[in-house]
Amino acid sequence: AQLRLAERKFVGVGTSEAMANNIVEGQELEISGFLVEGREKDTIQMEVDNIIEMMPTHPASIKAFLASPKIKGLGPKGAESAVKKWGPKTLHILDTEPEQFLEIRNVTPDKLENLKSSWSEWKLCYEALAKLRMLKVKDADALKIYKHFGEASVNTVKNDPYSITVVKGIS
Questions:
Q1: Which end of the chain is more exposed for a tag (fewer CB within 10 A), N or C?
Q2: Tens digits of per-residue pLDDT, 77-103?
Q3: Phi and psi for 135 in degrees, rounded to 5?
Q4: How far is Cα of residue 14 from the mean position of the Cα atoms in its chain?
Q5: Would the pTM count as exceeding 0.85?
Q6: Separation CA 30–CA 4 (nearest Å)
């Protein structure tokens, strides 16, 4: 998408492959960075410092999130049905009353277990990254730390920050 800034155009986002990994259409993101002169005449390009994946709140974003490879057991049609049924409350229902997803066509007890498991895993990761952000760890690094240390990530950074140097790409 393009955004007009006075007489200039916003033409794109420059980011590392690690930051852009797993971004799907419709996903809610917070992007921080700065604007620089673009390569084309009268354009500005954004140099991205950080991309933060936000907990989806808009029905279209919830649908995109639930249909993404991050969440197992639902798929695009199931995600669409769930969001059509519950709207913005869909993730709350998944969090508090996941058995209601059995009302969605083709969601079997086995698929529900996959859904609950992948939701729980993603939520733990999201919460850990949010806490690591508060400790001034950039998202790309926080994700590497989380993949290495799992649920112990936050305590590791707080209590033994030098131990994270064993993670590839962290110094």
A1: N
A2: 999 999 999 999 999 999 999 999 999
A3: -90, 10
A4: 18
A5: no
A6: 19
